[in-house]
């Protein structure tokens, strides 16, 4: 998902959360639900994933 470096679970690649966000925003625009492009950090909270990564002594960088 992009919280830690390396291979993500379920065969997902790092950065997948950002890709899903971008696709979601694209559809929101098509449906007229938003104007402009909301930032990933304004719409997605990775605090829970960061906390788990920290507890497991993993890096908490966001890719």
Please tell me the total number of domains.
Answer: 1
Oligomer: single chain
Quote the beta fraction: under 5%
Classify the helix fraction into a percent range: 40-55%
Describe the protein in words:
The model has no long low-confidence stretch (mean pLDDT 80). 44% of the residues lie in helices and 0% in strands.
What keyword list fits this structure?
3 helices, 0% strand, 63 residues, mainly alpha
Brief write-up:
It contains 3 helices and no strands.
Would you spell out the secondary-structure blueprint of this structure?
Elements: H1 16-30, H2 40-43, H3 47-55
């Amino acid at each position: 998902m992009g919280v830690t470096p390396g291979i993500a679970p379920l065969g997902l690649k790092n950065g997948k959360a950002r890709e899903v966000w971008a696709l979601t925003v694209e559809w929101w625009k098509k449906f007229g639900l938003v104007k402009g492009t909301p930032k990933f950090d304004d719409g997605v909270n990775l605090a829970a994933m960061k906390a788990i990564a920290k507890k497991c002594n993993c890096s908490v960088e966001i890719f």
